[in-house]
């Protein structure tokens, strides 16, 4: 996650190199930091599209467009004789990184709230589609740097892994590792004399063993920002850590340690300080700078052992991989009874409404129950801040098979629409209008098409209600992805079919579906809403006068999901403590069995 000014101080000691080299040489092994690749490609692809007025939802690239740009970028690197050997993704981040992760989520929420405050009543609308432009990473593409009001879309890592694992050339390169990706990139580059492509200058602090420095000190580091594609070929600024350390006469890791302790020190001062410390150490004087702090810092840059990290070809979405990886760390890294931890992706939603992550909560609880006895601590937006809440595990029911194998095509469409409606029902709110639910069903039915081509009744326009419904659908989809991955990791039944993010999450398609949904999508919504109104009628027919029926403690009807969960006592806690959601007691969330509900 970077040491301030390290790149700036060492940049003068890096040199531009041309790929492929002249005279011709064997391809250079390349090892890529996967998360950095995803964010870099998305930003450059976005900057290659024409600037247009509107809002972030209109401006965002579709995941399928992003995936096309990603493969094109990798193809250009390959054409430059950079042999892509591995693309690593983080499968576990140490507890020491939690403050930084919280800080990044806080910053993303701050940006979202700031944008919301500027456009609280209506979102800007793009009057006309942007003019056509050359695709990103082609010879005629024009990349214009720009800033965006919001953080990156929530699922670009999932889209990246999907694109790579489904591509014949790159599927074997993918590996989600049980640590930070950068350490595996450095290990492989040092062992092969290859190059790491990353956005993190920390890679420069990984040191080759003394015998490797003597035998092969040619391993290098390239920052994404320092790659210029020349079609075909590339010119890159390459850092050679062993050569730089030899030129400066210092240990780069120790230099980084001192820079972290004093980020405002000038580079000459840091060099002199390192040399004085080294002289004192050689003379036998006790050196305080080589104490506990240094040892802990150095341990972060230890290389993983050979054979660790897997052979690739089946990368798991990093946040889910981290959740699964924490199973094996329970006895060593956690106290007795401590739960797992899930860092949910940051969604573009309406910060003035309840969290979109209420959708899919019960599905996630069922997934957690497969790997954690007690539950999982989820980190996401709740109210006006990023917070943690304990989600109790739920035992998965046998009706899961009926849920995904009941003979219905696109079963996830009904499941997600039901989940969105259920969240409104649980909150005692009126569900969204049918056209929005039909838009969701249209978007989620990846292969569907309208029964007849109709002209739009008006301009496609985002509203905050549409933003929230769209975000809730994404939360419900990701919750099913969590369940799918956990089922696969535990060797249990897997979903027969489930769409990737690029196949079913698309804001433009959602807006299209609001007016162009076909009969199949409308039928799903009619049936979901008919079931909803039936539950309302049943509740009105007698539940308010039956003292044995679970209620919500204030005379209002309980939703069917509350009734099935037997949530009377928890609902009363909600009313005694304003602001607590169904099933939350301080920071604990109980959930009913979603599979029993969906099986009705």
Structure commentary:
This protein has 600 residues and is an alpha/beta fold. The protein is built from 25 helices and 12 strands. The radius of gyration is 27 Å and the shape is globular.
Brief overview:
With 600 residues, the protein is of the alpha/beta class. The chain has 25 helices and twelve strands. It has helices at residues 6-10, 34-47, 56-59, 63-79, 98-118, 156-165, 181-192, 210-215, 241-248, 252-261, 267-282, 292-300, 318-325, 330-333, 361-369, 400-405, 411-426, 434-444, 464-489, 501-504, 507-516, 519-540, 560-565, 568-576, 594-599, and strands at residues 15-19, 28-33, 82-90, 174-177, 195-198, 220-229, 234-239, 340-343, 375-382, 385-392, 584-585, 588-589.
CATH topology title of the largest domain: Rossmann fold
Oligomeric state, counting identical vs distinct chains: single chain
Helix percentage range: 40-55%
What strand order characterises the main sheet? Answer: 1-7-6-5-2-3-4
CATH architecture of the largest domain: 3-Layer(aba) Sandwich
Low-confidence stretches: 331-337, 450-457, 544-560, 562-600
How many structural domains? Answer: 2
What distance separates the N and C termini? Answer: 47 Å
User: In terms of structural class, how would the helical and strand content be classed?
Assistant: alpha/beta
Q: What is the residue-mean pLDDT, rounded to a whole number?
A: 84
Strand content: 5-15%
CATH class of the largest domain: Alpha Beta
Region (Disordered): 543-600
Biased composition (Basic residues): 571-580
Organism: Morchella conica CCBAS932
Protein name: Asteroid domain-containing protein
């Amino acid at each position: 996650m970077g040491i301030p000014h390290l790149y700036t101080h060492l940049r003068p000691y890096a040199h531009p190199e041309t790929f492929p080299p002249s005279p011709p040489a064997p391809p250079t092994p390349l090892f890529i930091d996967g998360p950095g690749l995803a964010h870099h490609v998305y930003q450059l692809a976005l900057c290659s599209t024409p600037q247009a007025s509107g809002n972030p939802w209109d401006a965002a690239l579709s995941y399928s467009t992003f995936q096309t740009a990603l493969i094109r970028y990798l193809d250009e690197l390959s054409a430059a004789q950079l042999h892509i050997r591995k693309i690593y993704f983080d499968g576990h981040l140490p507890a020491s990184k939690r403050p930084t992760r919280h800080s990044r989520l806080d910053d993303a929420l701050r940006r979202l709230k700031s944008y919301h405050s500027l456009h609280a009543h209506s979102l800007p609308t793009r009057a006309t589609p942007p003019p056509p432009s050359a695709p990103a990473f082609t010879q005629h593409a024009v990349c214009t740097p720009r800033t965006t009001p919001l953080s990156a879309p929530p699922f670009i890592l999932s889209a990246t892994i999907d694109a790579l694992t489904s591509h014949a050339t790159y599927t074997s390169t993918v590996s989600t590792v049980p640590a930070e990706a950068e350490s595996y990139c450095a290990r492989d580059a040092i062992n092969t004399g290859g190059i790491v492509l990353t956005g993190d200058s920390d890679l420069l602090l990984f040191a080759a063993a003394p015998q490797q420095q003597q035998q092969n000190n040619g391993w290098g580091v390239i920052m994404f920002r320092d790659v210029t594609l020349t079609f075909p070929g590339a010119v890159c600024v390459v850092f050679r850590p062993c050569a730089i350390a030899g030129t400066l006469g210092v240990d780069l890791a120790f230099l980084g340690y001192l820079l972290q302790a004093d980020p405002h020190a000038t580079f000459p001062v840091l060099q002199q300080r390192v040399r004085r410390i080294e002289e004192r150490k050689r003379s036998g004087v006790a050196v305080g700078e080589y104490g506990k702090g240094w040892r802990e810092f150095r341990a972060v840059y230890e290389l993983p052992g050979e054979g660790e990290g897997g052979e690739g070809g089946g990368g798991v979405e990093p946040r889910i991989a981290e959740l699964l990886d924490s199973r094996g760390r329970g006895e060593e890294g956690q106290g007795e009874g401590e739960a797992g931890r899930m860092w949910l992706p940051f969604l573009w939603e309406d910060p003035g409404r309840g969290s979109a992550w209420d959708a899919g909560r019960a599905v996630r609880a069922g997934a957690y129950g497969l790997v954690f006895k007690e539950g999982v601590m989820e980190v996401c937006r709740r109210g006006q801040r990023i917070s943690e809440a304990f989600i109790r595990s739920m035992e998965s029911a046998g009706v899961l098979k009926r849920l995904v194998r009941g003979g219905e095509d696109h079963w996830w469409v009904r499941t997600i629409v039901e989940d969105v409606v259920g969240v409104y029902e649980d909150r005692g709110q009126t569900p969204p209008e049918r056209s929005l639910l039909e838009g969701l069903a249209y978007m989620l039915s990846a292969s569907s098409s309208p029964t007849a081509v109709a002209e739009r009744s008006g301009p496609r326009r985002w509203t905050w209600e549409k933003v929230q419904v769209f975000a809730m659908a994404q939360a419900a989809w990701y919750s099913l992805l969590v369940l799918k991955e956990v089922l696969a990791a535990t060797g249990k039944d897997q979903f027969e079919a489930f769409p990737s993010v690029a196949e079913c999450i698309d804001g433009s398609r959602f807006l299209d579906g609001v007016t162009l949904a076909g009969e199949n999508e409308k039928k799903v919504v009619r049936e979901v809403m008919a079931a909803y109104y039936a539950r309302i009628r049943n509740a009105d027919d007698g539940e308010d006068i039956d003292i044995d029926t679970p209620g919500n403690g204030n005379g209002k009807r309980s939703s069917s999901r509350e009734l099935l969960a037997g949530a009377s006592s928890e609902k009363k806690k909600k009313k005694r403590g304003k602001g607590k959601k169904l099933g939350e007691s301080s920071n604990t969330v109980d959930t009913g069995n979603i599979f029993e509900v969906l099986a009705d």
